[in-house]
Amino acid sequence: MGQNSQRSQTPELQRRAREQSFHDWALGSGLWIDRETFNFTDFPYLEPIYQAPPTDIEDLFGYEFVLRKPAQAGGSIFFLMWLGIYMPLRFNMNLGYYLPDEFTTYAFSDTRYKSLIKSNPDLLQLMEDSQGHRDIGSKAIRRLGLSTIMFLYTGMNQSQGREQQTMRTESMPLDALVFDEVQGMSRGQIEKTQERISASKLKIVGKVSTPRWPEGDIDEWYQETDQRHFHSDCKCSDGIDLADEWPNVIAQARDGRVYYRCPHCDTDLLEPWNGRYIKHNDASLVPGFTWSQCISKRVHPYEMLRAWEDSHDRQNFYNRKLGRPYSNPNEIPITLELLKKIYQDNDWPRNLSLRQKRDGENYMGLDHMGNLNVHVIKERLPGGYERLKHLEWTEDEDPFKRSAELMDEYGIRFASLEALPNFNEAFKFAKNFPGRVFVVEYSQAMQGEMLRWMDRDTSDPQAIRKTSDEARNKYVVRTEQYRFMSYAMGKIQDSNLRMPDPQRHPLLQRRIIHGRFQEDNLASLFTKHLTRIALISERKNEKEEKRTNRVEKIGSEDPHFAYANMCCDVAIARAYGTTRLLTSEMDHEAKAETEAAKDLRENNPEMVQIRAVLPSAGRIVRETCGACCNFKPDDPDDPTCANGRCQGMTWNNQKIMAVDPKCEEFLPV
Q1: In angstroms, how far is CA 517 from the centroid of its own chain?
Q2: Does the pLDDT of residue 554 top 90, yes or no?
Q3: Of 77, 97, 154, 402, which cross-links 394 as Cys (Cβ 3.0–4.6 Å)?
Q4: What is residue 625's DSSP assignment?
Q5: By the 8 A CB rule, do 227 and 338 touch?
């Protein structure tokens, strides 16, 4: 095709965009997409999605659209076609196409979008700079006629195990936003970015991603839509959503042929792409679509079955093949069902006097971010139990002022908080309470330890060198985040923490929600945050046994109370070490024995003679020096040796006995 004929067709492409609906324009455009002409023949389940966007500008105002999809299902192409080409041709507008990070953003712009434009001469004719000269633009900014398409990124980085946000939002106002790969974005980032369309006459927002966690990432936004699921046609009145019924929808004939079958009406589904979208939430006006690879003409049921049987990662299969969120029970230590079993029927302490606040041994954990400090105060009870004594959410220009007041009000023995993001404020707070407040710094090189108190660490000459670091180190506790979060969550699993049912005994406080002060139940928020922590342990590859461990938050809301609770346990460990609730374990084991068995164990003649020399023999002794890894017996070859020396820092090389009570450096063997 010659240059003149290309130029003559260019206005026609734009004219049809201004006259036709998006569906009709896309179907008749003849655009070359991913090495083939655009059509719905191979993707019939996409046609209702292309029919959904309205055409009139009045109906488009404030329009939102959410796609929760499987991998390689055409979701990104939909938004590139609709908001990246059709809408810029129909209206003069500015689009912001957001991805999670800089590399992904520019790679997407340089491959998917530029390739789409260069594969279609009619579109290439419209690529101009501000002076009207032919210009395909840069990776960050492309111009299509008088419209601008900007490829941007929300900028999520990881630092010391916690999310650090480096939001990139230029000052240019936008008319529409697309958030692609929402799985890698936080809700705060998305909500902040949406301010860029606040002055627009369109205010269109689209979100698309494969899901990961239930009620997290794209699934959190999808739950706020009308939730349209694709139902394949069968004899059932509403058909069947194959993904929701997986793997019960797989059938196999005697000849080995694999196909789908409805488990309710026994209909063989040889063409599962024939069906319709059905709303599952009539309360919302926001359109949201979800489907799976089960309805794809290009993914055979046999491929799905093989992927399922060969899958070592169920979450990956559910996310990428079924387009469904999934949580591995082994990775989510705290669930609402678990918490309901351990709630104590006691009220929150209310209207306490100063003396009552200071009663007992109180410890505090803080999580901080910007002008927000979140506090968890727990009281250590007899027998090693803990009681949730106070929760507080402080939003202020100087939230550490309130943190200092709580230190005095509750007579806090020890407190801890993370070093980031308010690094200077954290260390200033620790210096104001020397020996009582410790700053948590995460480290992977812990050699099997969970905590390392830098003011006690004499094992490494580098740790006690006389440098400028010495003043800072005395306030620091190095922490292996994955192991200690596992420990903190394990204490709750063991019913070590006494906490009331937040619905029966709410703890109400006003805090900022969606930009304005509202009353909220902090007790309920505390339990919600506990369920938003995942402990991920993965092998680096199939050939190596070495695993990588990390703590990952579920959902876009930062679970501040979960981290504050962990920091509170760091503070308790300063006084008691990291021993689990041993008293309850002893009670449980004792109850499991019959009276006859206990009598035989305690009073048989041989045991009486042995116990005359070694009093702890045959008994469950957990919180004594002999059960500590710092205990070095005088005779390592004699398991009954009761004398030894301490290798800890406080009682370094001093003589002790195995039955001596533990100190604060107790670490179980």
Answers
A1: 26
A2: no
A3: 402
A4: G
A5: no
